[in-house]
């Protein structure tokens, strides 16, 4: 294997096995000094158990102060969205550091993830471009910011999949659920179980038992062969099949093995688009749901997965139908909001619109009478507004201008609509000026012209 490929494998499989230091005391959001006045979003508000057709979500500073059935109190600026208002989406399986590559058409099916990662074609479409992006100076920060912009534009406000090498951990554009979040770091992540030694696994189990870790993400049983299936036994033998365990993929797991997952209280994250394109089959997610296993969704990455979590929801529904399972639209929405937050151990903060919670909010165009179906059928082109901590980071230029009282940091044409984009979330100081999307794209295209698009 070439040295560049070795470097890629080390970086890609790094994972996060140790507690990260807290962000610098000086770290703060530049957006905080540009805080907008209290405002209300009015439209069809989705709560975990019901929809409020003429509801209002009232936001002050970084927090939701009220969710009401009806208009907000007089005096609060109101945006009449005429849309569907829901929590920002949570993507529980992504690779933000690597999600800049072009979409790939796998030339054949593979038995497991090790096979395609070692293939010549994969080296051409991922490893070789990665090496170009890491030449002097390396563009890792640019890559991550660009990938997070794609997530944001697709309605995602929190994502999983960072590694210990993730740059500028205190300056994420969207929340990273496996790094420092809400003042704590209680998640760990592993790509290849076999790369952890006994000391790593023992230390991790001790942290889980002590409650210091409440979410352990591990890529497991990703394939269709005996090698993939054997990974569940390896996980159990390492003492890491626990209620904190979150199995990403689980494509090869049998009904009996799903029973083990259920008995352990572990959870699963499903990425059907990537599974089907690489292996020709996907996780028995319908069976897992019927057994009572908690299942979330992840878009994986652009080379083999879906361009957005919104699009992955449609693949998930189709895959469940092929398994003979009919799922309510509301259940699919829960899998990327409240259910996903519970899997991540962040359900006290994310996934539900309620007073006192961070104002991470998504507004979608209303095109369908059933609001839950409206979310499942939505595409990134339907996104009208995304806020994180109350700040409008992406949305209709007229709305963002009215809310902030300032010209947008950047305007982009997105599917025929003029949208405002602010990439300054979590910047370290009010004087910092994070690069705009146009700058990010220019830097990447300069090294790698086939960079995966954001607005396409």
Describe this structure in words.
There is one protein chain. The strands form three sheets. This protein has a nine-stranded mixed beta sheet. Strands 8-9-10-11-12 form a five-stranded parallel beta sheet. The protein has a three-stranded parallel beta sheet with strand order 5-6-7. The longest helix has 14 residues, at 120-133. The chain has 15 helices and 17 strands. Helix 4 (140-153) packs across helix 15 (437-447) and helix 11 (329-335) crosses helix 13 (371-377). It is globular, with a radius of gyration of 21 Å. The protein is α/β, with parallel strands linked by helices and 456 residues long. Residues 26-33 have low confidence and may be disordered. It has two domains: 3-21 and 91-343, Metal-dependent hydrolases (TIM Barrel, Alpha-Beta Barrel), CATH 3.20.20; 36-81 and 359-425, Urease, subunit C, domain 1 (Roll). Helices cover 32% and strands 21% of the residues.
